[in-house]
Design brief:
Sec8_M, Sec8/EXOC4, exocytosis, 0% strand
């Protein structure tokens, strides 16, 4: 009996300390197996049955208390289970469809390649049609740029259009007239740019000096030499700008400025700054690949233009001197 009592004590101690069901079961089995008294076993069995009934009652009470939550949890679990099952079935169906598509695509590979090539060809044709539509508008835009003297933009537009007409669009027979027209304009474009370059180099730059002195009203004989030197200085500035541009496009290192950085502003007056305008003209001539012709034209017209400058400056100095003499004679007349 003492052994059975000790075993029962160990069982109760184990029941109170451990909450692991498997541990409790092993402890009960050990207690019953080590006990020799039948009555102790029956007592232990009764306690187990009582504890089982108590657990069953507690479980029923908890179910009653949390019936709504339990029902919701069960339904949610069922819904999740159904969704997982449906998803598995759909994935299985998708895999089967992919395998079927793979087989069909393998069988239609040549046809798909043909359609892909046709798609690329159609895209290329659409790009050519867009390019043709843009090129048809070039003459009108070119005329507007030439009228506003935005020569760099006009040159870029003309060179790009001619390159396209003589390149990807060479076989388009409907553009033959436009090709001839733009090619002719490109061949004569440099003449317009050279004339503008000479006008700014020899005429406009010197006219500004003459205009400033004209606004002063007269030129004294002492300042006549200064006036002529001023013309020479302006002319020198123009030649320096021209020289810098030609050097840059001939790959000669020049540190003063870079005409490659000059850009044309479509919103401003292109002739507002003669130096920048001449740089734009030289840049346009370089795009037309007409720098050698430009140099030759400047050399051919240099003597004539310098004579014209001397003639204009001499005439202006003489007119100013005559006007000054008239003013002095009127001041010295007796009253």
């Amino acid at each position: 009996k003492m052994a059975a009592g000790e075993a029962a004590g160990r069982y109760r101690s184990t029941m109170s300390k451990s909450k692991d069901p498997s541990g409790l079961l092993i402890s009960v089995i050990r207690t019953l197996s080590t006990s020799d008294d039948v009555q102790d076993r029956e007592t232990e069995k009764g306690r187990l049955e009582e504890a089982y009934e108590k657990c069953d009652r507690d479980l029923d009470e908890l179910i009653v208390q949390h019936y709504t939550e339990l029902t919701t949890a069960i339904r949610t679990y069922q819904s999740i289970t159904e969704r997982i099952t449906n998803s598995r079935n759909k994935i299985k169906q998708v895999k089967e469809n992919l395998l079927s598509c793979k087989m069909l695509l393998h069988c239609k590979r040549d046809e798909l390649r043909k359609l892909w090539i046709e798609g690329i060809e159609h895209k290329h044709v659409l790009n050519l049609l867009d390019e043709i539509e843009n090129i048809k508008q070039v003459p009108q835009k070119l005329e507007q740029c030439m009228a506003s003297k935005h020569y760099l933009n006009a040159t870029d537009m003309l060179v790009s259009a001619v390159d396209s007409l003589e390149g990807p669009l060479l076989q388009v027979e409907g553009l033959s007239d436009l090709r001839l027209e733009l090619h002719s304009k490109k061949m004569n474009m440099h003449l317009v740019l050279i004339d503008e370059l000479h006008r700014h180099l020899y005429i406009k730059s010197t006219n500004r000096v003459g205009q400033r002195n004209k606004e002063k009203g007269r030129i004294s004989s002492v300042k006549a030499k200064e006036f002529t030197c001023c013309f020479c200085m302006v002319l020198s500035v123009g030649f320096n700008s021209l020289y810098l541009g030609l050097c840059l496009f001939k790959s000669i290192p020049v540190r003063e400025m870079s005409l490659l950085e000059i850009k044309e502003d479509m919103e401003l007056d292109p002739e507002e700054n003669s130096t920048v305008f001449m740089g734009i003209l030289i840049k346009g001539l370089a795009k037309l690949k007409k720098i050698p012709e430009t140099v030759k034209a400047i050399q051919d017209r240099l003597e004539q233009e310098l004579k014209q400058i001397v003639k204009r400056s001499t005439t202006q100095v003489a007119d100013s001197g005559y006007q000054r003499g008239e003013n002095l004679s009127q001041e010295n007349q007796p009253r």
